[in-house]
Write a structure and sequence with these properties.
about 475 residues, alpha/beta, Rossmann fold, 2 domains, 6-stranded parallel beta sheet, 18 strands, about 25% strand
């Protein structure tokens, strides 16, 4: 081979090598893009560590058993009535006649409960549902230790700690673990069908832009301090009434409402903090008498840390809040109200409306509905409602009945209908915890979750904490 041919061959090899390196780099970058929402799937059984189960939601995660989950649960908690109450509910679930559970609880109590869990690490998933004062810090330290986290809301309760939560998500990604919160309301059948219908242009049109006075989408939740859980009166820990430990209503229950607004108005769309513009925020108190406080806590007097929130004998709890904001240009409103006790035969209630260009989709749960959530469809377009009704019936029969057998459309007025839903779909709030946990386990098994979940969790908590900041001005 002469020198010239050798030089040409060498040049060709160099070009091919360069192309190969470029291909490898492109491939590597595409893998990096794909793995933003991936983590190391758990091999073998999921082993739960329940950290500081001070809120009754901790026990509701264990109201059922799960395939692939070890029945041994390691509990790390401060000593006190909260952990005793949690263990009592688990004991009841194990002893019930119908579908009893078989949890085996191994309990450590002490002030160093977090340090003990991180040092021993007998499990690979931490469930946390308790005092929120240090929850963000506990989440961060857990993901730094390579532990998957299933967290009850809220994961953060102050604007000052929001950057810590952002860091926790970064650390979770770097350490290949999943950080996920318990959004039970996505599993409520009326909300699911409201979302489904809002995605059908023939019926809903498209979501209106709205205004601060008439938002395009509104979510309102009414809760009660005195209630029953798993058939028994709920005894709340006294710190639940301290907004420094539990968080104000505007950053607590509102988390669910903001989540639903994102989930319904922009399904499967990756959101950013820049998509959020807080217009207004407000907060107000629910006032409790000493007698009310005693009934729900079984304490004769207010603890010292609650004295700051008293006015005479009244305990004033900032449990109520409202945020009006724009999300990608759409006006939205989320508000939460806490009353002491629901009227006889009622409970917590939910209200929601989505304003489309062709109809409104409204969930009501008032006296007219027997305090049960019902989904109404109201034609708001101009002109003859007959073509709309024809389209609506067609959509129900061809789209929704296939997915949700048994649902029926009932005409109430010329432009108003009720979507009748069989009771079999109405499993109740407590059962939704099991549904969320099943989804979490599904993600753990695959090592992947939808690309929008993590960024939208961050946007959700940005919205609630910025809403609180606005309300405090």
């Amino acid at each position: 081979m002469n020198l010239k041919k050798y030089q040409l061959l060498l040049l060709a090899l160099l070009v091919l090598s360069s192309c190969g390196q470029e291909k490898k780099q492109v491939s590597k970058n595409s893998i990096t893009q794909k793995t933003e929402t991936m983590f190391a799937p758990i091999e073998g059984k999921v082993k739960i560590m329940n950290l500081d189960p001070g809120h009754f939601h901790a026990s509701l995660v264990q109201k059922t058993m799960y395939d692939g989950m070890d029945p041994v649960v390691h509990v790390f908690a401060p000593d006190g009535p909260e952990v005793v109450s949690y263990l009592s509910r688990i004991k009841d679930y194990n002893a019930r006649a119908e579908n009893p559970t078989s949890w085996e609880e191994k309990v450590y109590t002490g002030d160093d409960f977090l340090e003990k869990m991180l040092a021993e690490k007998p499990g690979n998933v931490m469930v946390v549902s308790g005092n929120n004062a240090k929850k963000t810090e506990h989440i961060l330290k857990s993901v730094q230790a390579g532990i998957h986290v299933l967290a009850d809301k809220p994961m953060v309760i102050t604007p000052e700690k929001f950057p810590m939560l952002e860091k926790a998500f970064e650390e979770a990604r770097e350490n290949g673990v999943l950080l996920y919160d318990i959004m039970t309301e996505r599993y409520e059948i009326n909300t699911m069908l409201q979302k489904e219908l809002s995605q059908i242009p023939e019926v809903f049109g498209k979501l209106q832009t709205g205004s601060p006075d008439k938002p395009a989408i509104t979510k309102e939740s009414v809760h009660h301090f005195s209630k029953y859980v798993s058939g028994k009166p709920l005894v709340r820990p006294p710190w639940f009434f301290d907004v420094k430990q539990q968080g104000e209503g505007i950053v607590d229950v509102t988390t669910h409402l903001v989540d639903l607004i994102q989930w319904e108005a922009f399904p499967e769309i990756v959101l950013t903090k820049e998509d959020v513009e807080i217009i207004s925020g407000k907060r107000w108190t629910t006032d409790l008498t000493p007698e009310m406080f005693k009934k729900v806590t079984e304490l004769d007097s207010y603890p010292e840390y609650l004295v700051k929130d008293t006015d005479g004998d009244l305990l004033k709890v900032y449990s109520n809040g409202e945020i009006i904001y724009k999300l990608k240009g759409i006006h939205a409103k989320a508000s939460v109200i806490w009353n002491y006790q629901a009227p006889e035969g009622t409970g917590d209630t939910h209200y929601s409306i989505m304003h489309g260009t062709k109809c409104n989709l409204e969930i009501k749960q008032g006296e007219e509905e027997g305090y049960k959530p019902l989904l109404y469809i109201e034609h708001t377009g101009s002109g003859d409602p007959v073509p709309f009704e024809s389209n609506l019936n067609k959509v129900i029969d061809q789209n929704l009945v296939v997915k949700y057998p048994g649902i029926q459309l009932k005409k109430l007025e010329e432009r108003r209908w009720l979507l009748e839903i069989p009771d079999s779909y109405k499993v109740g709030h407590e059962a939704h915890f099991g549904q969320v946990t099943e989804k979490f386990l599904e993600y753990l098994g695959s090592g992947e979750l939808p690309e929008w979940e993590i960024p939208n969790m961050i946007v959700k908590y940005y919205t609630t904490t910025e809403g609180m900041k606005k309300a405090m001005e």
